[in-house]
């Protein structure tokens, strides 16, 4: 395939617009379908979900549209050492949604004649549009099908039933949830305050997992909503990272209270003994260990998915 030539008529990429959205809006200017643009214009046969991760395709798209390489690369989501590089951080793979198209119906409606998909909507750790607080939807409000990138010519259409998602009802997250999401976004942009030193020196992916882990243990008492560490709960854990080590102490005390009342530990142990033995170890230790500062670090060594290697590298003790 030769070098793609720049289109005579292009578009103006919007701030925070995703590369998939740019490709979808550019396709009509090249008189092709979005999939034809990917396959024949960018040499990408794998389809839209893999577009932001393919550096060659992203740069070719930039050449076609006449956009600066740096601008295109700032919208790419490239594989990193442990996860994916997005914005100014590396995040775990489960923090990103590639195949599923998450959108905010009212925001698309307010885009008027240029509806576009945002880069930040691909982060599963953020459950709302950051400007408006509108909750993101990932299923068609009409037919219930997952919104994906296949069989669509614009980002507002359901590929299954052709429903225009802009006609869906809007739902907004509570103000405190929006402010947590914005704070996490600042962390990803490196525009917020630095994490405490213990976490700042970690790689980003481990810090992200620590957020998931904190959120899980902090929320496991009252509501029971956090059934496992997940990207969706991570926003709650960021605050705990900022208030480390006090947050860790209070997490332990909360769990201890639950243990005394006979609720929580046993059930969670049962759940994890099937899939996550490390968590069982952690919870057993919470039951038996005193809460001295050296022990705290050992306990964190057993947190889910924070590898022993990372602990070793940081000079943290991992007990047997
Ligand atoms: Zn539908």
Give an account of the 3D structure.
The chain is mainly α. It has a domain at 193-314. Helices cover 42% and strands 2% of the residues. The protein contains 14 helices and three strands. It has helices at residues 19-26, 34-41, 55-65, 69-73, 105-110, 175-189, 197-200, 204-219, 234-242, 246-260, 265-275, 277-288, 293-301, 308-313, and strands at residues 78-79, 84-86, 89-91. It has a three-stranded antiparallel sheet. Helix 8 (204-219) packs across helix 9. The longest helix is centred in the middle third of the chain and has 16 residues, at 204-219. It is globular, with a radius of gyration of 22 Å. The structure holds zinc ion. The site of zinc ion has 8 residues, from loops. Zinc ion binds at residues 140, 142-143, 145, 158, 160-161, 163.
